[in-house]
Each structure stands twice: as C-alpha cells, then as structure tokens.
Amino acid sequence: MYIERVPNRGSPPAVLLRESFREHGRVKKRTIANLSDWPETLVEGVRTLLKGGIAVAQDAIRIRRSLPHGHAASVLATIRAIGLDELLGKPADKRLRPLAIALIASRLVSPASKLATARDLAADTACSSLGWLLRLGQVEESELYRALDWLGERQRAIETALARRHLKDGALVLYDISSSWFEGRCCPLARFGYSRDRKKGKLQIVYGLLCAKDGCPVAIEVFEGNTADPTTLANQIDKLKQRFGLSRVVLVGDRGMITSARIRDELIPAQLDWISALKAPQIRALLEGGAFQLSLFDQRDLAEITAPDYPGERLVVCKNPLLAEERARKREDLLRATETALTRLSDKLGEGRPKGRDKIGRALGRMDNRYKVAKHFDITIAEDGFTFRRNPTRIAEEGRLDGFYVIRTSLEAEAMATDDTVGAYKGLARAERAFRSLKTVDLHVRPIHHWLAPRVCAHVFLCMLACHVEWHMRARLKPILFDDDDPAAAARQRKSIVAPAEASPSALAKKASKTTPEGGPVHSFQSLLRDLATCTLNEMTTTLNQAYTFTLVATPTPVQARAFQLLAVDPTRL
Length: 574
What we know:
The chain is α+β, with helices and mostly antiparallel strands.
C-alpha cells in the first residue's frame, strides 16, 4: 500500500490510500480509502508506517532542553585542529585544562566577565553547548580564576610553542602597541597615560603584540599604563632571541616604536634587522638637506635613497596622492575648527573686563592643545583681547610633504627588494587588525576589572589566545566572509605597492552582491557565529518514559553546512 496525491482540477489534490496488485500479468491499482480530509501530520505519519518506519505522535516527544551549539562546536573543533589544546599542557588537576579551553572559547562564543562565563558554562544555567561538550558539569567562578591563573603561569611555554610554529629564523615579525582602560584603582599596573581608547580620566594598561608576517598573533606582554612605546622594545628583543631562540629576525614597527635611539642602543647590539619609518621632522630635514627632490615624484611614487645621517640604512621615499588629499582635507577641517574656536574665545573675552596678556595666552594655549594647528595662525595678543589670521606660508610649507613617508631599513637590497620592504612595513596593518579584534565586539579585552597584576596579564593573554583561534577560523571561512579570499589576485592587479590595497575581483563581487558564488549570504565573522549558534543541541525525551533521553542536533542550513565543511566540523559528533 502507498499514499498518492492525485491532481483535482479546481480543487486541492486528492490524497488516496492505494494498493497495487497484478492481474493477468499487468500491474493495476485500487483505492482503499480517501484521506483528503485527514490532517497533514496524520497523513505523513501513515506514510511513514507504510515505508516500514515508526510514526510518533506529536505529543509523544518532548524537547527537554535546547542549547545554541554550532558556534561552540566550531570554535572547539578549531582549537583541537590547530593543536592549541595540547599546547596548554597537562596540569596535575585534570579539570584545569578543559576549564582553560572553555575560557578561550568563551571569548569568541560569548565574551563576558568570569562570573557571567561561569554561569554560561554551568549545566543548569548554560547559554550554549560549550560546557556540555567539555563535560564540565557545574562550574564555579573560583574554578575559572584557578584556570586563568594556571593559564598565566603557562604563558611563556605556550608562546614559545606558538613561536616555534609561526616564526622562523630570518622571518618578519610585526610588533605594535595598544592600551585599554581599567576599571578600579587597585592594580599596580594601572596608570594614567596616553589613551588610545580616548577614555579621559581612566587608568589604563599598555600591551605589546607580536605577530607573524601574516598577522597571526604569537605573543603578548602587558606593561604599566604610562609606559612609552619605545621602552617596550628591549623586552621583545630579549623574548625573540632568548626565549624563542631566533638569531635572525626582521622586526617591523612603526616610527614611534623603532626610533633612532632604540636602533642605536638595542637593535644594533642585538644584531637584529628592522623596518620602520621616519617622523615628519626627519623627512623635512632630508628634503632641506637635498637628499631627494619633490619633482622626482611627478612621474613616480617611490624612490630609494641614502643619506649621511642614516649610515648603513636604506631609505625608501614614497608618495601616496590619496594620502596627500586626505591630509590636506584634514588640515583644512582643523584650521576651520580652530578659526571657529578662536572667534568664540575672542567674542567671550570682549564681553567682560580686560583679562590681561597672561590669561589670554593661557586660554590660547589650552585651545592649541585641542587641535594642534595654532602654529599656522599669526596671533597678536593685547590687554583686552587678540587678533588672528592664517599664515599661508607656513600652511603651504607643511603641505609640501603631504602624502610623503619614508621607510627605513637595515636590510640590504639583496635580502629584500624595495617593493617588498614597503609592503613589509604596510603589513603592520595586520597587527592593527588583531588589536581591533581584541578590543571591539569580538573578544572584549576591555574594560578590565581584575585587581592582581598577574591576573590582568593572564586575562590579556587569554584574549590573545582567543584572537589566535579567530585568526585560524577566519582563514578557513574566507569564502563565505567579507574577507578577501584571493589576496594573490588583489596583489596582481595592484598598480604599485605604494597605492592603497585593492580587493580582488571575488571580494568585490561578494561585497556588491552580498552573496557567495554558491548563492548563500556573505557574513561578517560575528554574524556567522550568530548564525551557527542556531544549529542547536537538543536533549529529547518521550512522554511515555521521561527517564529515557537522547540527544539530537538540528539539521544545518545550507549556510551552516558550508561553514562546517570549511572548518572540517561535524556538529553531530559529540
């Protein structure tokens, strides 16, 4: 017997229960019952029975609990695929390692405080399948702090193992500095300093990140919040040479990090090569000394030069027209804002009694600290006020070098070509991208609430490990993310290494259509994790015997199936 749907002109199809039989060598069929008035679920239940299956009544199955699962399974699978779980080590307390893995994964799945993370992992209050997959059971906040402390103690060994994987002798190493604000006032590392988060009145910490050439985070170190960028370089040199055992390394850092003093006192004695850039006053001195001519860049955008002030170094002068336009626009905006502020201050001083030259000068000084372009104005101060006007000569003089920057390196031309040298310095953008992941919606390294200095360092290290996992996930998920999945094509179509990086044709197509070549939606990393979370882990039971339970994973959607395929994840393997 079987169920057949028969078209019915002008009416819904007839649903008939039929039987096949053979008569005089011919196959015939007859209708046993008309099921057209039956509910669809009942019809499909009968169809299942006829196929040899077991039909279950709708009220016979219950979902005891449903947990977001796909994102947790993907993160855990990546941690195991890259062997990070093995790098953590094997503590005497066997519970510490799965708790540490849970802390790393939680920064990607649901970044939160340690108390909130404990509740997210605990069996009774879980908000994902992460704790269930790691068989953690009930989780206390104090356990997570013990795991965090153990992870901090293992930092040196873990970073050394990561360096062994991602850094080789002669490799490029990207180094950059950032800071994050601190909640509270009891941590000895928290200091007032230059805030890159623009958080006024907040204590902060500073941390330096070492990345491989491709931007993969390898090591991180925390410093006091008032530490100047160049003073952190000595620790990194010692780390690379002593702990990581690298005798030849090319350290890439920005102009505020690798200064002439650090090159002379630290990099040269350590026999390390470097790639950095000159500051604006140094570039102006080169121009005034005749080391290069501006007219040289009418038809080209880079030129390699040497200068007596930089013995043994190669200097690559670059001009980016787009950068020049942006700097000119920004300067004009600042000049207009300064004019508005000066006019407002002048009007305010004219309303009351005379203030005196000293008070007017202090007021002007405070305003100069805001926009930094008062040097382009000629200001005349009197007892009862002041007058001002732009100085076109100074403005034009500064504008001459708009779009120019100079790369400096100790590498010889045989070791690295000119274009590759400029590209290596521009590679610092990959370290900055890692900072964006650390500090924004992905991992939430800030704000920091810990009091003990070792625990603050462990927290930052934990976030770096999560960033390391995210880097590997992004690399595999590029075909369905907005990330460029064909950088080689982008490099081929780039007219010059000085020009801004261009997206490959495939990346442009994804951005324009918001769909992948397979027709699925293109995601950001975070939106994809949210999508994967809807592939749930369901604890099932029956109304007949609630002691009997079984687990079912929801069928992945096409987008989820594609992501699981790229990550080599089977969400049903529990």
